[in-house]
Amino acid sequence: MTDLAQYEPGPASGAQVRKEGHKWTLILVRDLRHSPEKVWQALTDPAHLREWAPFVVDGSLGTVGTTVKLTWVGTPAPQETTVTRADAPKVLEFSDIRWELEALGGGTRLTLWHSIDRRFISWGAAGWHICFDVLDRFLAGTPIGAIAGVNAMKFAGWQRLVAEYSKQFGVEAPGWTPKAAQKS
Predict the structure, then answer these.
(1) Residues of the chain predicted below pLDDT 70
(2) Where are the alpha helices (DSSP H) in 21-100?
(3) Could you read off the pLDDT of 57-95 as tens digits, one per residue?
(4) What Cα–Cα distance (Å) separates residue 182 from each residue in 101, 128, 179?
(5) In the chain, what are the domains?
């Protein structure tokens, strides 16, 4: 694992929202230097997901109809989710998440759609931004370990990203931070 202390997230970019009542859809796009097949494995393999994602699963997400227990970082109980679409290495859907992978030169354009309560859309964007950075490093062979949930909120650059995405989306950032994320 490389030195986590050297990681600093870049500026807010590649994100937009679709607004539909209280549930908004975050759309986040990132160009990665890795093949769609390699990115697909990172999106579907439980061991790979543990290295970068804000959740863990107890089985592969690579097959339509598969039901797995998915546990978001910081939540006490897993939820059962079923893979509703798995067109390797192009489209993956489960729960309220959709991934699209598009071959781009020697790499992949990864697009995430995630339905999130509008009050937390800037948190979701900041969290996924950091997860995408961690994913890119993991795929490059220089892992820094997953940074998600309250650990992301404690991380340098979190508040800046939330503020930047809030401004970009025209929303107010949530006015509180969970106690577990507050620095002592």
Answers:
(1) 1-3, 176-184
(2) 36-44, 46-52
(3) 999 999 999 999 999 999 989 999 999 999 999 999 999
(4) 36, 20, 5
(5) 4-169 (3.30.530.20)
The sheet carrying 91-94 orders its strands as: 15-20, 23-32, 107-117, 97-104, 91-94, 79-87, 67-72, 55-57
Tokens of 13: 């970019």
| 3-state DSSP assignment of residue 43 | helix
Confidence (pTM): 0.91
Placement of tokens 């997901």 in the chain: 49
* Closest CA relative to residue 29, chosen from 39, 14, 16: 14
User: How far apart are the C-alpha atoms of 121 and 126, rounded to whole Å?
Assistant: 9
Q: What is the reported pLDDT for 140?
A: 96
